[in-house]
Sequence to fold (643 residues):
Amino acid sequence: MIKKEEHYNADDIQVLEGLEAVRKRPGMYIGTTSSRGLHHLVWEIVDNAIDEALAGYCDDIEIIINEDNSITIKDDGRGIPTGIHSKTGISTVETVYTILHAGGKFGGGSYKVSGGLHGVGASVVNALSTFVEVTIYQDEKIYYIRFENGGKAVEPLKVIGNCDKDRTGTTVTFKPDSLIFTDTTEFDYNILKIRTRELAFLNKGLRIILCDDRPIEKIKEEFLYNGGLKEYVTYLNRNYKPVHEDVIYVEGLKEDVNIEVGMQYNDSYNNLTLSFVNNINTDDGGTHEEGVKNALTRIINNYARNNKILKDNDESLTGDDVREGLTIIISCKHPDPQFEGQTKGRFGNSEVKKIASDIFGEGLGRFLMENPDVAKKILEKGLLASRARLAAKKARELSRTKGGLDLTNQWGKLADCSSKNPLERELFIVEGDSAMGSAKLGRNPKTQAILPIKGKILNVEKSRLDKILSNEEIRSLITAFGTSIGDEFNINKLRYNKIILMTDADVDGAHIRTLLLTFLFRFFRPLIEEGHVFAAQPPLYKITHGKTIKYVLNDKEKEEYLANLPENIKSKINISRQKGLGEMDAIDLRTTTMNIEERVLLKINIDDAILADEMFTILMGEEVAPRRKFIEDNALNVRNLDV
Fold:
């Protein structure tokens, strides 16, 4: 019987005032207090500067990582208003930095277009920092205020000097609170660089300078792209061979909604679609993306039929056909955007679908009429994709069996597990017969299945779907997963809750793992996004002394273990480098790599889809040198595999 609580009255209701709620539940406001949340603080302040740029008042933004790991963000916008706020009785600056949902983005007068819609950015950063300093240049005066202890003003806003009459803007310096960000308070320059570059691409003509004052050799980079999305597409396609030289660019304004699209086809078989609303990356798409995609399919089919490339009885090209090998960026600027969820992942304004379709459709149709040679190349690529799609449909039929339990390939047979509950089932993908033998003996046969592969599987980055589906080994993987592939993919039919890549802890093993991850990223991305894909961590070294056997994952762990051994034992130890999983007996493999109580698994995740797509393009594309360098640099010391 559940015991009831004896007391529950008014005193049990906790009231959090001001910014206390932010410090109590930071995840509600920035998503996470991990590294991702830490860097999110920077963008909350930068977004305010970007909004000034969108309004036409800011040309330059500077982001500086200071020596003490604080961040300074400078802009040359109008500066936050410095007068006393009529409703709060304190300066507007203090109001913006201490009161949630206070800002100039709600009334519609200050900002026609804005990305920071919730009005919590500045105050949340203040709440989660050990200190925040705000300096404003306005009306030939320099205003200053400092906040400490979770966002409390040390003293009211004051004038600390004079400035040139032409100087305006806001400078903000903050340092994240280590009591909140317990994992790390160290900013990663490369993470900041990726988003900084993206913002510069999305806002043509805006100069953003990124500096890191921490290293011995200071870093300072400037990002300015007068070509905007055209330069962005060129940058993303730099590792491919373009099908046509010029980037197709369309921009238009209708009902106060601005639609901007840049696109270019390349010789790959992959599609990269990026969409943004007011500089916010809409990972889950939305009406702006739907409108552009619909127009793309419609206009290309109309052109093909009007020019007799497609006959009356021919099947129309599908959306997948016309997007094969396409890199396309869609940017929408909207005065009153509606997003689904706090993460702003999907854009929901229904009227934008037709606006985007009309603007892009008209621009693309005009381009194809004026550039028949480019139009011909695009149609040829779409027709090839259509033929491959039909061939892939036939090949896909070959990947189906009755439940997949009789799955075999020329290198071995799936050793399935006996449990019928997908939530507790695990599939280990192992390389080689010897590893298969050890894994099969070391597994828990109730919940752990083993599927062997031999060496390096087909590089799907260089192959079209019909060729991929004709590969026996890949068909084995598809069948084992149970989800099918392509437009028939259904994650609800996944047969295993965990798919675990178990390759050797060496360069070849890392290469095989990268091939498998490329396959999963391109065709089973939802499995990664929903946390079903893992990498096993087999030990790299076996250390023995007397009857003691110790397996360690990498060189760092080896050195740490050896450093803690008594001197009289150090002279008696034997260290052997593990050449492969097949060399480990079943008991050791079970203990170190498969036993759920002892093993260490790395969950594969996609923190930044753009970066992940770029990484796989570089690693698995035509150029061998970048792939070799990455594998050699990371194969033996990786501790966290975030893809």
About this structure: Residues 372-397 form the longest helix (26 residues). The two ends are 47 Å apart (CA to CA). The longest strand covers residues 129-138.
